[in-house]
Amino acid sequence: MNKRIIITSGILGTLAIILGAFGAHALKKVLSVEELNSFEVGVRYQFYHTLFLLFIANTSKISVSYKKYISLFVTLGVILFSGSIYLLATQSLSGINFKFLGPITPIGGLMLIVGWILLIIGVCKGNDKYEN
Questions:
Q1: pLDDT tens per residue, range 63-90
Q2: Quick check: 55 pLDDT over 90?
Q3: Which residue, among 8, 26, 28, has the nearest Cα to 78 in the 3D structure?
Q4: pTM (predicted TM-score)
Q5: Which one of 10, 36, 70, 102 has the fewest CB atoms closer than 10 angstroms to its CB?
């Protein structure tokens, strides 16, 4: 489980760096300030949750089953939240109207919140054998 979470984190982190650089260099010239700011929000949240997944994989304070659900909610949350923001922010370039994705962004955000709540519950219920 930990290996899979770390690999997922590595993939999301790599993509966050690539997308961040793409936004800072290529998109800066063609997007409005508002669109670029939205794109950067997607990158920022993706990177925050990449680090969160690394923490989840390396903590002994929560059970494997909680790690599984946290990583699932966080990964899907990043895909829905950041992914929809990327598409919405760049729709002027693609010419595709992605406005129908507007409701997907808060669903992704809710999934990220659930991941954090599961962390809290998992620590409260979790592996106390490592407590000092």
A1: 999 999 999 999 999 999 999 999 999 9
A2: yes
A3: 8
A4: 0.91
A5: 102
pLDDT digits (tens, 9 = 90+) for 109-119: 999 999 999 99
Amino acid at 14: T
> CA–CA separation, 93 vs 100, rounded Å?
17
Q: Are 113 and 70 in contact (CB under 8 A)?
A: no
User: How far is 122 from 101, CA to CA, in rounded Å?
Assistant: 32
Torsion of CA 8, 83, 46, 119, to 10 degrees: -70
63: which 2 tokens?
């059970």
Is the confidence at residue 132, as pLDDT, over 50? no
> pLDDT value at position 75?
98
Total number of residues shown for the chain: 132
Neighbouring residues of 27: CB distance < 8 A, sequence distance ≥ 6: 35, 36, 39, 90, 93
* 103 in Cβ contact with 44 (< 8 Å): no
Cα 100 from chain centroid? 20
Write phi, then psi, for 103 (nearest 5 degrees).
Answer: -70, -15
Nearest to 49 by CA among 93, 80, 28: 80
